[in-house]
Amino acid sequence: MRTDEPLPAVEEALAALATGLWHWDTATGLVTVDAEAARLLGLPAEQVSLTEAQARARLHPVDWNEITGVIQLAVAEGTLAEVRVRIMDEQGRIVRVVRSRSKPSFDRARKAYRMIGTLQEVTEPTPGTPAGRSAVTGDWRRSREAFLLDAGRALAEARSTHEVLRVTANLSMPGFSPDGLAVFGVEGDRLTIIGHHGQQQGDDSPFSDMALDTDYPAAEVVRTGRAVYLSSPEQYKARYPLTWPLAERFGRRSWAFLPLTVAGRTMGAWMAAFTYPVAFTPDERSVLATVARMLAQALTRAGVAESERALTDGLQRTMLPRLGPQRIPGMSVAARYVPTGGGLQVGGDWYDVIPLPSGRFALVIGDVQGHDVRAAGLMGQLRIALRAYASEGHRPDAVLSRASRFLHGISDEDPFDPRFATCVYVEVDPTTGVLDIARAGHPDPAIRMADGTVLTRPTSGGLPLGIDPDADYPTTRLALESGETMLICTDGLIETGGHDLDSGWRRLRAILEDHKGDLEELADTLVQAVHGPSSHHTTGPLADRREDDIALLLLCREGEGCGCGDTVLVPAPVRRTMLTVAQAEPERVAVARQQLRELLHDWASPDQVDSAVLLLSELLTNVLVHTDSDALLVAEITGQVGERRLRIEVTDAGDDLPHKRRPGVLASSGRGLVLMELLAHAWGVDPRGEGKSIWFELYESVDGSGDGSWSP
Question: Which parts of the sequence belong to the PPM-type phosphatase domain (predicted)?
Fold first, then answer.
């Protein structure tokens, strides 16, 4: 029977030759080693199974990357995988060098590699000596290809000059690795230092502003575009006597200076210095030249990316407002903007906070179609227009109507690329907490109540801005209670990672409900949970790899439970929602039912929740059928959990008071008050001068009996 375990006789024979056996299956992620292999890894001399992470911790990190590259190459060529590995102790010191030989195979069904191999300690000759070079001759070409594959991948993933330099400093070249590196750039007719490794701080001073006509290897490389190889101090001194004293104090024995060339232009030079003599054979020169080409390309990409990020940062700074330390009495505001990862990382999302002539203020958030410079330009113009219309004192519906006509006009200037924008405009009265909301094709706001309950607040809306210059934008009035927080955001915060509006809102609701920190921490948590670290220009650099831009605004009315500033203690938590159901919008009855269910999400008795929803439907339908007025719904929960009271009040402008009827079996109406008496713990009708208010109450029962045992 086939087994991966070595036979005892074979194991004894290999142990006598100081050779260990190991088995690695990437499907299970386990590396099994015998006693001799465990000893070579610096572990107790006994058979043991290690995780890949545990095995990797015993090896030099660069060698681990080389192993994976050699294995892939061996599988592709059908050959043995042979590589030298440095074994590290817990302090990160090299304790020995071993040679690993294995025959890897790839299981396509399991999509995993399977390897059985040997480990054998080798005496590592001095690097750069003939013995050192001959020791790696057998696997030189394979190691070189694996090294270049790994180096190319690492440099391609580096996104900044700092990352490029860090990757270059950590490269371990097969058979010869420099211990000193320097990257030179060019500014005018001067040589500059872009970065260096292996030297002390300040050691680069003599080289940081050197004229290009100086008798120095890096300057010559930039002037001529040809590499310079110096195998000994004597060669350096004879060829560059004037600058040899600058290099002598570093104690190096060999140097390679290579041009950094992109598109036929030499943009700088790369120096690799060695503490031992290097002959710079054709193979060694080939590796150095290949690394120099990859380094030049990586530095060019990083420079372009950094220029784009600087342009993006400057553009966004001019287009987005700084909230700064402004203080709104009784309220707090937090905002974030995170661009997409494509192109210049600019797009059409924006937010704004606008002081109004009435003493109120407006919150605006929107999204111009597209993720390009034109979208950003239109966004900037639209933001200025909205601010101007708001500052003139127009109401929310008028502000959006004017903005829509404005965007329609400027977007039509390019008939081949018309654009539209979604937007939410909220006029806030900081004294009363009243919110007047106008919406143009944008996601609805969400409210986090003082006890952590989160509701989406459906609001009336119109078409996105710029589509119809004569579009109307109805206004919805809500009230932000003490301790409540409103979230308005662009769809990039919701629809990402494969989520749609429904699943995205559920994810955001969980974040809002669980958060315990202040408003700024909540803003960061929302961004980080959805997109990773925030790239708001006040909190860090712009991030990339975004699926869509995101912008969000948080408005908190200070009070107990909000965590947004100085708190005002209230006797007991209050949960409240308001909603208007117009005669022309009977479909909002369904919205009201959903709002009530969300309000009662933790109510003890599901039967009472169903009763409340049924009674609410009856009240709202009665207003729409028997009056000509709109219905105003106010639902409120007070008291402690398990002993709460639900009060629902529906107000209309009708003068006729309801009266109880005795409907027949086949009657389609007339059961409203009968149901009220059967299901509600208390109910009543209150005249209001012009109109009336019908209300009912339900009292929570922990055991679900609904016996009405409640005391105010």
Answer: 328-557
Topology (CATH) of 574-699: Heat Shock Protein 90 (3.30.565)
pTM for the whole thing? 0.54
Whether 222 contacts 191, CB under 8 Å: yes
Whether 81 and 103 have beta carbons less than 8 Å apart is answered as: yes
**Could you give the CA distance from residue 449 to residue 231 in angstroms, rounded to a whole number?**
74
Strands (DSSP E) contained in 219-283 are 228-230, 254-262, 265-274
Q: Which residues pair with 699 in a beta bridge?
A: 645
Listing DSSP states for 354-423 in one string gives EE-TTS-EEEEEEEES-SSHHHHHHHHHHHHHHHHHHHTT--HHHHHHHHHHHHHHHHTTSTTS---EEE
Give the number of C-alpha atoms closer than 13 A to the C-alpha of residue 405, restricted to the C-beta side.
10
Q: How many CA atoms lie within 13 A of 23 on its CB side?
A: 12
Residue closest to 696 by CA, chosen among 660, 658, 659, 645: 645
Fold (CATH) for 321-557: Phosphatase 2c; domain 1 (3.60.40)
Which residue blocks in 104-139 are alpha helix, DSSP H?
Answer: 130-135
As a whole number of Å, the end-to-end CA separation of the chain is 79
Expressed in percent and rounded to 5, the helix, strand and coil fractions of the chain are: 35, 25, 40
How many CB atoms within 10 Å of residue 288? 22
Task: Map residue 278 onto helix, strand or coil.
Answer: coil
**Domain pair 150-312 / 574-699, same fold:** no
The whole-number pLDDT of residue 314 equals 65
Domain 8-124 has CATH 3.40.50.1450: no
Residues of the chain where predicted confidence (pLDDT) is lower than 50: 1-4, 7, 126-127, 131, 133-138, 325, 342-343, 532-546, 565-571, 664-668, 707-712
For residues 16 and 36, what is the distance between their CA atoms, to the nearest angstrom? 9
What's the fold here for domain 150-312? Beta-Lactamase (3.30.450)
Q: Closest Cα to residue 459, out of 513, 403, 400?
A: 400
d(CA 225, CA 217): 11
Which residues neighbour 107 within 8 Å (Cβ) at sequence distance 6 or greater? 27, 113, 114
Q: What are the tokens at 62?
A: 């660069």
Return the ∠ at Cα 542 (arms to 539 and 545), rounded to 5°.
130
Backbone angles phi, psi at 246, to 5 degrees: -70, -35
Distances (CA, A) of 227 to 121, 224, 248, 255, 469: 37, 9, 20, 11, 65
**DSSP states of 207-221 as a string?**
GTTEETTSS-HHHHH
Query: Domain limits of the chain?
Result: 8-124, 150-312, 321-557, 574-699
Task: Write down the pLDDT at residue 541.
Answer: 33
Pairing of strands 190-197, 692-699: unpaired
Contacts of residue 104, Cβ cutoff 8 Å, sequence gap at least 6: 71, 74, 75, 81, 113, 114, 115
